[in-house]
Amino acid sequence: MKYLLKRVLTLLVTMLTVSFLTFAAFSLISGDTATAMLGTAATPERLAALRAELGLDRPLLVRYGEWLLGFFTGDLGVSTSYKQPVWDILASKFRLTLCLSLMSFILIAAVSIPLGLWSAGRRRFEGARTALNQLGMAVPPFFTGILLSWVFGVGLKWFMPGQFPDAKQDFAGAAAYLFFAAVALSIPRIAMTARMLRSTVQEELGKDYVRTAISRGNDRGQVLRRHVLKNALPPVVTFLAQTMAEIVAGSIVVEQVFVIPGLGQMLVSSISNRDYPVVQAIVVILALWVVMAGTAADLINQRIDPRLRLGGAA
Amino acid sequence: MRRRNGFLAAGLVLTCVLAALILLGFFWTPYDPNAMAAGAKFDGPSLAHWMGTDSFGRDIFSRVLKGAGATASIALATLAIGAACGCLAGALTGYFGGPADEVLMRLNDALTAFPSILLALVVISILGPGKKGNVILALGLVFIPSFARVTRTAFASLRDVNYIKSARLMGASKARILAVHLLPNTLPVLLPALTIGFNNAVLAEASMSFLGIGVTPPDASLGYMLSEAQGMLFAAPWYAGGTGLAIVLMVFSVGLLGEGLRRRDKGVL
After folding, report:
1. Is residue B197 within 8 Å of B146, Cβ to Cβ?
2. How far is CA A187 from the centre of its chain?
């Protein structure tokens, strides 16, 4: 309980730090927002007037406090290029990116854990498997995405590349479309996670308790699943939390490949448009998501490994 | 007993061949990569055009050679910034420790929580998108923390080893201990980290250029070309294939090299 409290407190502090740093970084350039909005019509007087209108002339901490309050009440400011409240623009995109990320996460966990376990117990073709693993890590998601849309979209016509179906009218179509994107996103991370699990499992397999368990006549597979997996899992859970972060980053690129109207696509177009209120909101949302995944991993590990609950190092 | 290290050999050969091709591309390409030929639009791969031509009749193999050169040189420049600053910070904090070490490592923890591409996007949106120098600077900054962490661990683990103690007793200067005694012994860790860093830089640069906020023409890199190729996927799938394979091959060979280096020095540190 004490641990949980401490973790949540750390989480809050990290979130505040992350959001403040992002806010401060974008405030540094927010002079540009006014300049960008006015373009060639910028005169010193007009700039000053617009800055006053946007509230850019007040102290940084005051603006941060207001923005933070707004963040929790769903008021993220107004987009400079769409002239609409940021939250209205982002709400539906957020759901889409969340679906894509969760789908890839499940895919990664479901494939890489059995794959890593299977691979750890075998010695034959170790070199070939490692080479294949390196190849998996070398394929960038945007290239896989293009390959998938060529084979399954252009060739087999299972979906129409570049045309994301409306989830309300064609739910199955939208889910299938997202699935292809999730596959493209997952391949390198599956390779990395499987490799990571394999090496931690192999390390565990060399320990005394495994030899004892096997010499007492236990089934190898059962020892692997019952005893070794439990000890090898915590680092992998931490790694999967980092994977959540990489998925979030990867979704930015994959959304662009598949033309999925999610947060990532919005982020990229907002950077090109210099629409800082939107960029700032997306960055903070994604960062908070990543930080929360890390905390979740710590809490899960603490359930798996009782040693962590007593405050000792595992 | 030394076992044969197939990874190191394969990685070295592949990397050298690719490096030679890229160097060649700086001086000579089969065709002018930007020359348009009206008669040769959308030609499939043939003996004259190894990877076919695109919608303007430009030779794709020549473009890939040039693009790979751009990608590799940006990745190397990024690596130089990230590795130089990161290793220096890591070596100093790892060897001397103290409050500076604590502060830097906490900062490092906070930064590594961010996915690298997101961080690079933030930096690039602050510096201004679309310029080669900004891309290198943004990616270089983003890669500093990971190098600092690896180097710090390596230097800290050797800080109190006997041969370092004896060097200290003999009155060797701190700079000499760091550069002559510690650095060569941390190479087994640093070299694989460099190969991983190079690969991450290639992939990050390619993703950013693919998104259109990295390098833009005339310095087209592989990532930008791939986004161009996606638009011609129906008419010229070989454009996307050739460009994508070039990225995969580059990352794969350097990855093999890293794996080989790691195996060679397993158990040294």
Report:
1. yes
2. 15
* Reported confidence tier of residue B98, pLDDT bands at 50, 70, 90: confident
CB neighbour list of residue A44: distance below 8 Å, 6 or more residues apart: none
ipTM: 0.79
Within 8 A by CB and 6+ apart from A197, the residues are: A112, A113, A116, A117, A120, A232, A236
Does the N-terminal peptide bond of residue A235 adopt cis geometry, omega within 30 degrees of 0? Answer: no
Residue in B116, B244, B256 nearest the CB of A146: B244
Note whether A273 and A81 are within 8 A (CB).
Answer: yes
Q: Please indicate whether, in this complex, the C-beta atoms of B211 and A161 are within 8 angstroms of each other.
A: no
Residue A310 banded pLDDT, cuts 50, 70, 90:
low
Angle at B59 between CA B57 and CA B62, to 5 degrees: 155
CB contact under 8 A, B230 and A139: no
Helices marked H in A74-168 — which ranges?
86-120, 126-138, 141-148
Compute the nearest-CA separation of A134 from chain B (Å). Answer: 6
> b vs e for A138-147, b when ≥16 Cβ sit within 10 Å of the residue's Cβ?
bbbbbbbbbb
Contact A283 B122 (CB under 8 A): yes
Q: How many CB pairs under 8 A join A and B?
A: 122
